[in-house]
Amino acid sequence: MVHLLTSEVQQLLHNKFVIILGDSVQRAVYKDLVLLLQKDCLLSLRQLKTKGELTFEQDKLVAGGTFGIMHNGIDYREVREFCSGHHLVRFYFITRVYSDYLEGILQELQSGEHAPDVIVMNSCLWDISRYGPDFWSSYLQNLESLFGRLDQVLPKSCLLVWNTAMPVSEKPRRGSNQPKGQPRAKPADVFKANFYSWEEARKHHFDVLDLNFHFRHFKKYLQDDGVHWNEYAHRKVSHLLLAHVADAWGVELPRRQCAPVGNLINYDPECKQTGQVVKRQPHGDQDLLAFPVPLPLPPPRPRALLPLPPPLPPPLPLPLLPTPQPLPIPLHQVRPPFPLYHHDSNFPSNRVFHSDQFAFQTDFAFGSQPSIPSFPSPCYQQGAPVVHRGFPRYLVEGPYMPWRGRPKRPKRRVPAHPQSRPQ
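Structure tokens predicted for PC-esterase domain-containing protein 1B (423 residues):
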């Protein structure tokens, strides 16, 4: 699991247009991403629960929310947008996976000035709990209509990531503010809806991030209502989402050991004037980690977020040397022996000798000879010096030898018949 800093997230999403569509859980995903683009801290509990506010961490409310009537019905609308010098993030609150309102959003994106680079979307809990007992048939039909429409509207360069719905608890905890009589989504129905949405997204070759799988053992990070999650879980969602986007774009993220969640500092907007920084403690488990600690890894590379270079072509296989074959003939070729003839002292030099094999004339010129086949030189016959180890060295006899091997002078012998000197 990667742990990204604000500077690295800014570089990854540089000049990118990100759109998030979904319910209140996806709104928390939007808020954590906006906060992570500006500072290395977590959301506060009040920021997670507040909806429809005019501004949040330098973003603005575009439509719905406090501009209209605040309610919890299926017609609630909220559009938020965060825009900086090099980042654009927008959020649409939806209560159904496909509707006339969603069709209007798609048309707005299609005719807009900027095409989206990344779309993160999920719609499940409202679909299976607020639209009557026959919600399965309408949900399956809306899923098919949604992905078919997205395949037509979105450009090829746009990355669509479908988030599966996160786990929910069977009953809310004590002290929760869950309204009585409000229908709730069952865990079995959520699991079933995730399977249908995954199957439909796979048919249209869209990416799926299975958040239900990643958080199946982290239900202790659920809030009291049993549906929404705390700030530590949403930071892990942001890291999972950004890692998926980086992998789709072929960007290598830095590898570092995950930090404990207690080391992450929460920023409270109320402390802005006093300049205080508030640290929030986890719910009864200060030593827990937001995600498992991986094994120690090598230090990060200096060029972490740059695209990977194209892979080098595989090296060509080296040609195999031919196996030396035994020589057909010896190295030192000897001229074929001539037939022996008796020497004739009366044999004139200008006479031509006729034979079945050779013909010699006075100039001793050879006649036509059969061509000698050319054989390839053996592999051990090289121009460079060759040392044959294990054999005695051959020394040429003569006066020019090493000092210890210099021969002695021969003794002078007296001739048998000495000649007299001239007087």
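Helices lie at 6-12, 24-36, 45-49, 100-110, 135-153, 187-203, 211-214, 231-249.
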